[in-house]
Design brief:
With 738 residues, this protein is α+β, with helices and mostly antiparallel strands. The chain contains 20 helices and 34 strands. Helix 11 runs antiparallel to helix 12 and helix 11 runs parallel beside helix 13. It is globular, with a radius of gyration of 29 Å. The chain starts with 10 loop residues before the first helix and ends with a helix.
Length: 738
């Protein structure tokens, strides 16, 4: 199959050879489908259910419900939002008898083997409807245990974010769990289920974590009940906002404080209180929303402040300064922090970083028991592994999106479109600006809520591609988070990554199907980043390592008789799979051009790398189909024709010709032109949708796996960025040929 798009629906039918318009089409569709939505900031209870380092929710009730007797039941309840009808593999580790209900339908019941084996691990496929979905877990206490561990399989990639049910907890993140019950109250035996759209009291059970202060706690100030009473001098910050009406020019702030207090309206000091007492400050303002920051220092009189706002004699209602779902009040609170030095209000009014506390870093809380503010990546809620389809990808650190951002940046450069460049940089900065916070979040809660793959870096897929796009965006100079991230990735690749005896990168992956393997893909996951890092840091070590890896991989994977690369070398069997997967070969040539472009002319490995590039290009050129596309398995005539590898080969050939690495009289110009024409005729439609891109791959010794199990996905992120890059290079090549 080579024709994914009817002729009249193709981009070529409408735009012909106008590559400029086709690039605009590709970039515009992607940006329109992936609007720059922010992270979702939510209330979250530190006393609630946390995730472990694997991303499984620790629903072990043995220590939480100590009053439970053997035979008692308890329930965990949560909501999941899905942007579309989706499926996801979940992991269940039963610690005792457990049932799992999805949308009030029984999906799993533990067996005695599950319950008695502490290492049990059941994989449960879950299907979610578009919109809200409910998860209910019933656990029964026995001598073997009470509860379970549950979550998404490969949780740092397949994100399963849960929200609290019940109207009183609306918008908060996390699970709720019930008090013990002597008999089953919900599920298949009773036919009853909790009603998440009602107040929790209607369920007849008490649910945790608690959301209300007790009478004794209510007698304390918000700062004291949240953070205690510091034994040494410390400050607390409050952050709120107020809407000043059009007719007002003066804002009045009044209240009390128990110690030295300073108040800012936006960046202007509204007033300073040197000691405990009442205050009344006036500040000139213009209409609109004004940010209010209060800093108060503890004293012998306590640690508290009150603030009321008015204008023109009318009381004004304080509002949340930013949207924090599940926050019932107008304030965010942080502390205890050192009383000195004074932080600038702009430093305080940030959700991107933690504050330096008196005993370590602190972040924002809300006025409820153990309630923290926490950002969540929810733009692709319950997407599949590669966040394709209708879910938006903005703000996600993920390797296919690294190619997409690179494609957008190059498209912006070629078309002189600052708006496209700005979008890509905003996506990248959404990750980099929250890096320090995300590392703190992981340490604080056991599993990160954002930047999952970057924080939990264990393999090249997690860091190299997006890290390369980050450096391509020229964010290294003067930006401490970017330098910190780049240095960490480089250290991981150069000093920590598993290697063979000869120094070649490989995947150790103990206990996994992919244990002891080398993948052609990893030249892309490492090479472009190392090349750009060498230029950004001025250290040639990374560039030399990249060159070394290409030559080492060639020894293991290049099929001399076919002129193409095997996808994987499996050291368990001591041999390559000898399946030349199209995109695997595309990754190699794509990345090799990135290295050759930046490799000095006198580099000792340059000639060997040029020979590798030319030999590989020659092998690939022979296998192009009549349509202009290349096949999913390059040497299998009955394999389907695949778009992403085609775009990579077009990109590599065009660059090889443009930089003079390939013979201008050889087959490459015709192959590149034919390949690009094939993509615009058969894979890119008139709305900018990209068809014919194979989904993310595992590996096999049989080509049948690639041909039959790996099917194409509409607008898969593995193909969008490289489609733009191929178009950019074809525009540049055509200019040179004109």
């Amino acid at each position: 199959m080579g024709i994914y798009v009817e002729q009249r629906d193709s981009s070529r039918y409408w735009f012909g050879n106008d590559d400029h318009r086709i690039l605009e089409l590709l970039a515009g569709r992607y940006i329109g489908a992936n609007p720059p939505l922010p992270f979702a900031w939510r209330a979250f209870s530190k006393a609630g259910i946390l995730q472990n380092a694997e991303g499984l929710y620790e629903l072990d009730f043995s220590n939480r419900l100590t009053s439970a007797e053997e035979g008692d039941y308890a329930y965990a309840y949560a909501l999941v939002w899905s942007d579309d009808e989706r499926s996801i593999d979940s992991v269940m580790q039963a610690l005792g008898p457990v049932k799992l209900y999805v949308n009030e339908t029984l999906q799993y019941r533990s067996t005695v083997v599950d319950e008695l084996n502490p290492n049990s691990r059941a994989i449960i496929p879950l299907s979610f409807e578009k919109g809200w979905n409910s998860l209910l877990i019933e656990a029964r206490k026995t001598a073997s245990g009470f509860g379970c561990r549950f979550g998404a399989d490969e949780a740092k990639v397949r994100i399963l974010q849960v929200l609290t049910p019940f109207t009183s907890r609306e918008g908060s993140a996390g699970w709720v769990y019930s008090e013990p019950a002597s008999t089953p109250l919900f599920g298949d035996r009773t036919g009853q289920f909790p009603e998440w759209r009602k107040d929790e009291t209607a369920s007849g059970l008490e649910w945790f974590p608690r959301t209300q202060w007790n009478e004794e706690e209510l007698r304390l100030s918000p700062l004291e009940r949240l953070f205690g009473k510091p034994k040494r001098q410390a400050a607390g910050y409050g952050w709120s906002s107020v809407s000043v009406p059009l007719s007002a020019r003066l804002l009045e702030l009044s209240g009390r404080a128990s110690g030295p207090t300073q108040i800012w309206v936006d960046d202007v000091v509204a007033g300073v209180l040197d000691d405990a007492g009442s205050y009344q400050f006036h500040v000139s303002v213009t209409p609109g929303t004004k940010q209010i920051v209060v800093k108060t220092v503890n004293s012998s009189a306590g640690w508290s402040f009150e603030l009321h706002a008015s204008a023109n004699g009318t009381s004004l209602t304080l509002q949340q300064p930013v949207q924090v779902h599940g926050n019932p009040g107008p304030w965010l609170l942080a502390g205890p922090v050192p009383a000195e030095p004074n932080l600038e209000p702009a430093q305080v009014r940030s959700l991107a970083t933690t504050l330096e506390g008196i005993d370590g870093q602190v972040y924002w809380s809300i006025d409820a028991p153990d309630a923290r503010v926490r950002p969540y990546y929810e733009n692709a809620m319950l997407s599949n592994k590669w966040t394709t389809g209708t879910a938006t990808n903005f703000g996600r650190w993920d390797y296919p999106l690294g190619v997409t951002m690179y494609g957008l940046l190059q498209t912006a450069s070629e078309l002189q479109r600052a708006d496209i460049s700005s979008y890509a940089i905003r996506h990248i900065e959404a990750c980099t600006e929250m890096y320090d916070y995300s590392m703190w979040d992981f340490a604080e809660y056991g599993f990160p809520a954002i930047n999952h793959q970057l924080v939990l870096m264990k393999m090249l897929d997690n860091c190299g591609s997006f890290g390369s796009a980050m450096l391509e965006a020229d964010l290294y100079q003067g930006r401490a988070p970017v330098r910190k991230i780049a240095d960490r990735i480089a250290d991981f690749m150069l000093a920590k990554l598993e290697r063979r005896e000869d120094g070649a990168f490989y995947r150790l992956c103990e206990g996994e199907y992919s244990a002891d393997t080398m993948w052609a893909d990893d030249l892309y996951m490492s090479g472009p980043f190392l090349t750009r890092y060498a230029l950004a840091s001025g250290d040639a070590t990374a560039l030399n390592e990249s060159a070394k890896q290409f030559l080492l991989y060639k020894r293991y994977l290049f099929m001399e008789d076919a002129g193409v690369m095997s996808h994987v070398f499996d050291f368990k069997y001591g041999k390559p799979t000898r399946v030349p997967w199209g995109r695997g070969n595309g990754w190699v040539l794509f990345s090799l051009t990135e290295l050759l472009e930046r490799l000095p002319g006198d580099h000792p490995d340059r000639e060997a790398l040029l020979a590798m590039f030319r030999e590989h290009c020659a092998g690939v050129a022979k296998l192009q189909a009549v349509s202009g596309l290349w096949r999913q398995v390059l040497n299998q005539p009955d394999a389907y024709e695949e778009a992403s590898c085609t775009a990579m080969f077009v990109y590599a050939f065009a660059r090889g010709l443009r930089f003079g690495w390939l013979d201008a009289n050889g087959p490459y110009a015709e192959a590149a032109l034919k390949g690009w024409q094939g993509l615009t005729e058969h894979a890119i439609d008139r709305k900018g949708n990209v068809h014919g891109v194979c989904s993310g791959s595992r590996y096999a010794f049989s080509p049948i796996y690639y041909m039959e199990d790996l099917r194409t996905v509409l607008n898969d992120n593995h193909g969008i960025g490289i489609m733009m890059l191929a178009g950019v290079e074809m525009m540049r090549l055509k200019k040179g040929l004109a």
